[in-house]
Structures are given as C-alpha cells and as structure tokens.
C-alpha cells in the first residue's frame, strides 16, 4: 500500500527545467507513481511465470490458493491506490492551473511590466496551492472545534432542562401533598365546628335548666323566709 502523501515542505525539492514549457507541477510525483505501477505489473508477471515453472515434485512448500488470492488482492488494492493518486494529481494540476489563470497579470501599456519565467510562476502557484490547503485545514479544524463546543453547550442545556423538569415534578408533588393536607385540615375543622356547635347547644340547654332551678330555689327560699318570720313573730307574741 502507498502511504506517501504530498508534503508542502517538499515542494521546494521539485526540479523544473525552464526550457520545457509543457511542464505541469506534480509531474515528478506522477512519474514516480507510474514507475511504481510498472514495477507492480512486472512483479505480477514474474509471479505468474514462477507459478507456471514451479516444480511441485522437488519442493515440499506448497503455495496455497489463498496466498495467491491474497497477492492478487494486494495488487488490486495497490492499483486502486495508484488510481486515487492519479485523481489527486489531476486535482492538484487543475487547482494550480486555476491559480495560474487567476494570478496572471496583464501587461499595462504605460508600465514597464516584465513577465516572470514560467517555472518560477509554477513553483509559486504550487506553494500557494499548498498554503490554501493548509488554510482550509485550519479552517475546518476551527469549524470542528466550534461544532464540538455547540454540541457540549446543547448537552449542558439538555441536562439543565432535565434538572428543571425534575424540580418542577418535585414541586408539583409537594403542592399536591400540601393541597391534600389543607383539605384534611379543612375537614377536621368542619368536624370540630360541628362538635363545638353541638356542645354549645347542650351547654345553653344546661344553663337554661340551671336558671329555672335557681329561680325555683329562690322562690322556695323566699317562702321559707316568710314562714320563718311569721313563726318568729308568733313566738314573740306568745312570749309576751
């Protein structure tokens, strides 16, 4: 598998011949990839030849079909990787051509403009391309950090909302409990009022009875006083 990637720091090492006007940036890497692909094809061809000429009678090491399929799969993966590298190189070429067209400076009739050599412009465009790539990487990292912060903020708000819901539920239960207690107190008060009314009524009746008895006792007492006075007067008269 190919794990090598284009490093912006290695752009300075690409050598360009100024006489070749058809040079495209990234051609050196493309040439290396093509050489590697040809080596893979040659390796595959050599394995095929060795498989045909293999003497099974003289060697006890048997090559399994799984190993052959594994090699074929590795070659296929390598070919896919090379194809992806080709696409990457094509994209880089397209980006560099776009940059070159955007950075192309038109000659001014009133100025002493001197156009830079093509290899210098290509080298500068290659550096600018990698600088833009790095800029987009940093920008994407910032966006990811922002998304992570917003996600954390959303998570915190969700937790706070859940805590608020729990508090509201607890308060509602406390309110219901208080309402039940208030209703019980009200019922007890109503029962007490009924009992108090009955007791007051009984007391009033007892007071009336006591008043009647008191009046009766007063009348009897007055009668006794009168009789006693009469007896005393009668006794006084008899003693004289």
Q: Could you describe the 3D structure shown?
A:
- The chain has 240 residues and is mostly helical.
- It has two domains: 1-15 and 22-46 and 69-103; 139-231.
- 78% of the residues lie in helices and 0% in strands.
- The chain contains three helices and no strands.
- The protein has helices at 27-52, 65-103, 118-239.
- It is rod-shaped, with a radius of gyration of 58 Å.
- The chain starts with 26 loop residues before the first helix and ends with a helix.
- The relative contact order is 0.06.
- Residues 1-26, 47-63 and 105-114 have low confidence and may be disordered.
In short:
The protein has 240 residues and is mainly α. The chain is 78% helix and 0% strand. It has two domains: 1-15 and 22-46 and 69-103; 139-231.
User: Can you tell me the overall shape?
Assistant: rod-shaped
> What is the count of structural domains?
2
Classify the beta-strand content into a percent band: under 5%
Number of DSSP-assigned strands: 0
The helicity comes to over 70%
Give the overall average pLDDT: 69
**Tally of helical segments:** 3
End-to-end distance: 162 Å
| Radius of gyration of CA atoms, rounded to a whole number | 58 Å
Residue ranges: pLDDT <50 for 5 or more in a row?
Answer: 1-26, 47-63, 105-114
Largest sheet: none
Overall structural class, as computed from helix and strand content, comes to: mainly alpha
What sequence of helices (H) and strands (E) makes up the elements?
A: HHH
Keywords: Coiled coil
Region (Disordered): 177-198
Biased composition (Basic and acidic residues): 177-194
Coiled coil: 68-109
